[in-house]
Amino acid sequence: MLLILGIVIGLLLGLTGAGGSVFAVPLLIMIGGISIHEAVTLSLAAVAAITLYGSVRNLTKQTILWLPAALLAGSGILAAPLGKVLGTMLSETILMAGFSILAILIAIRMWLTATTMPEASKVVRGSHLSLESTNGLLCKFSPTGQFQMRPKCMSGLLLGGLMVGLLSGLFGVGGGFLIIPLLLLLSQVSMIQAVSTSLVVIAFISSSGFIAHIVLGETTHLSLGSLAWLITGGLLGMFAGQLLSHRIANASLQKIFAIGLMAVSALMLFTQLI
């Protein structure tokens, strides 16, 4: 079962881009029949492995912005364990409700992006969509094409990394839904650069969150076999998703995923409120 779930999670990541990791936790809870604490731990492990694989594949494309990735990942790695500590202070009901609300907000953003920026849904195909104006941007490129690290730019990236790390450790989400729009908001990067950089950041932050859950959590009964099956399925799904994305990734598919995520999240929230 975990192998199949891993394939589905990896497939969704490959088709939707870095934001697809939010599907992992509800699938593990509703189909895998495990608690949210276990689901978050397994999700972090799977997302870390899958995004690491995606990052390695992007190395040859030279689309990763290493300086902003280092700032985002550095602060996120520190914040992810704090998210886990916060999670231990909250009841499972509150965690489930909090995750459901977060997932609904992400689904709404996916729908709006597919509606207002349909070109962005082609990101997994290698789209080079970017902002046209640099006016008001905190992070800019030098005339030679180097990413310039100004104080305000660094502050924005560090704060963004802290927020992503906290949410990752708390809810088991990768954070692509925050990292990608943050990079596009702060700088004139292409969509493919934003996604490639996001994958690297998520790999490091999710790894930190997973380690924190193992060290600080109550999930010691999770076997290495369970993790291996989930990760293996995730890698297979990611590979298949990236192949299929060149043919079927579009705004309509993004809207379908948004509706599905919203429906599942609303159901999770409803079950906690009744």
Give your account of this protein's structure:
With 274 residues, the protein is mainly alpha-helical. The protein has one domain. Helix content is 73%, strand content 1%. It is built from 10 helices and 2 strands, in the order αααααββααααα. It has helices spanning 2-16, 24-30, 36-58, 66-88, 92-116, 151-171, 176-186, 191-216, 224-248, 251-273; strands at residues 140-141, 147-148. A two-stranded antiparallel sheet has the order 1-2. A hairpin with a 5-residue loop joins β1 and β2 (147-148). α7 crosses α8. The longest helix has 26 residues, at 191-216. It is globular and about 55 Å long. It starts with a helix and ends with a helix. The model is unreliable at 123-134 (pLDDT under 50).
How many helices does DSSP assign?
A: 10
Largest sheet: 2 strands, antiparallel
Low-confidence stretches: 123-134
Rounded Rg: 18 Å
Q: What overall form do the CA principal axes indicate?
A: globular
Kindly state the percentage of residues in helix: over 70%
Mean pLDDT: 80
Question: SS-based structural class?
Answer: mainly alpha
Order of strands across the biggest sheet? 1-2
Number of domains: 1
Order of helices and strands: HHHHHEEHHHHH
Task: Please indicate the percent range of residues in DSSP E strands (runs of 2 or more).
Answer: under 5%
Distance between the amino and carboxyl termini: 29 Å
- Strands, count: 2
Short summary:
By secondary structure, this protein is an all-alpha fold. The protein is built from 10 helices and 2 strands; from the N terminus they run H-H-H-H-H-E-E-H-H-H-H-H.
